[in-house]
Amino acid sequence: MKLPEPIKNVVDGLSRLPSIGPRQAIRLAFYLINESKEDIHALAVNINNLRRIKICERCFFIHQNKDNLCDICVNPARRKETIMIIEKETDLISLENTGKFTGRYCIIGSVPKTGILEDWQKLRLQSLKSFIEKGIDDGGLGGKADEIIFGFNPTSLGDLQTSILVKELGPLTKKVSRLGRGLPTGGEIEFADDETLGSAVDRRS
Amino acid sequence: MKLPEPIKNVVDGLSRLPSIGPRQAIRLAFYLINESKEDIHALAVNINNLRRIKICERCFFIHQNKDNLCDICVNPARRKETIMIIEKETDLISLENTGKFTGRYCIIGSVPKTGILEDWQKLRLQSLKSFIEKGIDDGGLGGKADEIIFGFNPTSLGDLQTSILVKELGPLTKKVSRLGRGLPTGGEIEFADDETLGSAVDRRS
């Protein structure tokens, strides 16, 4: 059975989003059809308004400022010499919610296992290097960051991504670090996997 | 960390859709932000166009016809005296894709376990009853349908939904039936559950 054109368009549009398959897209489209015309319109307007969101030219997080930097990068209380490299925006939000990090970020995306960055990732890495290398008088770091923290997931892929980027960024920083590993707060020792428990022993404090 | 208003609006709008939680809604919103402005706009326009979709006043499936009936209900080749009661639009699409059913449908939604229909479901049931009871000269069925098929899922909930509606619709039809149960084509007897295999023995043909 052929779906009417307006539904097919929405199904196509939704099913190219991550983790939404064609069947779920069809269910979502029918759900929307059964909503009020006002609700459908509101969702369309809200999605359209996403076009107004800008990307920070230093850390690549989102913002709505007049200039090209996000709230974190323009905040003088955030140490620009300490940079955490992370995969995605939602990781930044989670990290900000801890209130523990006073440096800045750089969102680099998911580093491919091959170690060959995509073009947009190369541009972001190059932009970060230029910022570190630029003279302090020009708003850069004068050659070296104080610390670069690799904030990738604590998985073997995350470790690989870290090692790939350490090669690129190691010479540009006084110190390299990773997020700490150990027992998650609220967890139980009995149910911790060997890797996690081993890390907790190694990094006891 | 507070999300900017345009993102928050989209996250709110997406997370009220079925099977999309707040976390997935945030991931989807960030994914969209990183798409081109044209793609964002196209999705917004397509969603907005869903407002043009109409609901058939007889079977409650979608359509885009000038009149108030869908393609199936206006098709003279479809027997209007045979009515399949189904839960949702996607079930109708799956059934139509088999090409095996030559009657018409009535989409009633998911019947609550309590047996107490929601208001919109009561309206749909009443509309179906009126159609059956209306005289043949007035476009109705003159008091009785030839057959009402209950096309709910083959689960205990589906059986309950069927029994609830049989009470309402049984007096208005010459015959009541359900979709056949047995081994799914391509399945293996060894792995069939007891209920399914039992049905296959009971309903051998």
Structure description:
The structure is a homodimer of 205-residue chains. With 205 residues, chain A is α/β, with parallel strands linked by helices. The longest helix of chain A is centred in the middle third of the chain and has 15 residues, at 119-133. Chain A has 2 domains: 5-52, Helicase, Ruva Protein, domain 3; 57-178, 3-Layer(aba) Sandwich (Dna Topoisomerase Vi A Subunit, Chain: A, domain 2), CATH 3.40.1360.10. Chain A has helices at 5-15, 22-33, 37-49, 71-74, 89-98, 119-133, 156-169, 194-202, and strands at residues 54-55, 62-63, 82-86, 104-107, 147-150, 176-178. In chain A, α1 crosses α2 (22-33). The interface between A and B is large, with 50 and 50 residues.
Tell me how many strands of chain A there are.
6
Strand content of chain A: 5-15%
- Find the CATH topology of the largest domain in chain A: Dna Topoisomerase Vi A Subunit, Chain: A, domain 2
Quaternary structure type = homodimer
The overall average pLDDT of chain A, rounded, is 93
What's the total helix number of chain A?
8
In the residues of chain A, how many domains can be counted? 2
Q: Helix share of residues of chain A?
A: 40-55%
Task: Supply the CATH architecture of the largest domain in chain A.
Answer: 3-Layer(aba) Sandwich
The stretches of 5 or more residues of chain A where confidence is low (pLDDT under 50) are none
> What's the alpha carbon Rg of chain A, rounded to whole Å?
21 Å
Helical/strand content category of chain A: alpha/beta
Shape of chain A: globular
Element-by-element helix/strand order of chain A: HHHEEHEHEHEHEH
Taking the sheet with the most strands of chain A, its summary is: 4 strands, parallel
